[in-house]
Write a structure and sequence with these properties.
binds calcium ion; 8 helices; Rossmann fold; five-stranded parallel beta sheet; alpha/beta; 12 strands; 2 domains; four-stranded antiparallel beta sheet
Length: 226
């Protein structure tokens, strides 16, 4: 396994690289944003470790560039800061894990192992069914490029149907996956919500995506059997 470490503090970089090499990993080292990007662009690493505060351009910018090119490589962020807002932004930009400085090398090595064990990650945060787009991170829904506002339950229902386009889900399955145990509502709740969803997702558009299969349930997109 070959990894890239981008860290400008020479001492930290040296110690981290040594700890990883002791675990038999091959470690390439860069000390600023531009050279980190050059290396990440030139070679498909098995894992990348990024410091956030870097000369040249920031680790956050480097993270975005790497993700544009490579959706799969696991990325671990090192940071001196502990700002939740920033962490959230970096997770959205494609970070897989975080370690706040100062950290113990044993913890770093363990996190690296866990990330490598997971292997290349399919990070499709956007589900697409025809011209419908569902961003599972931001929970934004668009159809034909137009933003559609959904209530939380409408969103949950749509996301569930979109996890497996073409499949037909029974009302019982939908209730079990979209509502929680506290649900004691109407038995026709699914039909009610599908109607709401249709009015937003399908009614304004010529092609209809939500399908009713009589006596069975509902599905999204073309039927798998067709
Ligand atoms: Ca730094």
């Amino acid at each position: 396994m070959r990894m890239l470490l981008v860290e400008d503090e020479a001492k930290v970089s040296e110690l981290v690289a040594r700890a990883l090499r002791a675990e038999r990993y091959a470690v390439d080292v860069a000390a600023d944003g531009p050279s980190g990007w050059e290396m990440a662009d030139a070679f498909n690493y098995d894992l990348i470790i990024l410091d956030l505060m870097l000369p040249g351009f920031s680790g956050a910018e480097l993270l975005r560039r790497i993700r544009r090119k490579n959706q799969q490589v696991p990325i671990l962020i090192l940071t001196a800061r502990d700002a939740t807002v920033e962490k959230v932004a970096n997770f959205e930009a494609g970070a897989d894990d975080y370690l706040t400085k100062p950290f113990a090398f044993a913890e770093l090595v363990m996190r690296v192992k866990v990330l490598l064990r997971r292997g290349p990650i399919t990070r499709a945060s956007v589900l697409r069914v025809a011209d419908l787009e569902i961003d599972r991170l931001t929970q934004q829904v668009k159809r034909a490029g137009r933003r559609i506002e959904l209530t939380p339950k409408e969103y949950a229902l749509l996301e569930y149907l979109a996890t497996n386009p073409g499949r037909v889900f029974s009302r019982t399955m939908i209730i079990e996956h979209v509502w929680d145990q506290s649900f004691e509502g109407l038995t026709n709740i699914v039909d009610v919500y599908v109607r709401h969803l249709r009015s937003k997702i399908d009614d304004p558009f010529p092609a209809k995506l939500i399908r009713t299969v009589r006596g069975v349930g509902y599905g999204l997109g073309q039927s798998a059997e067709a």
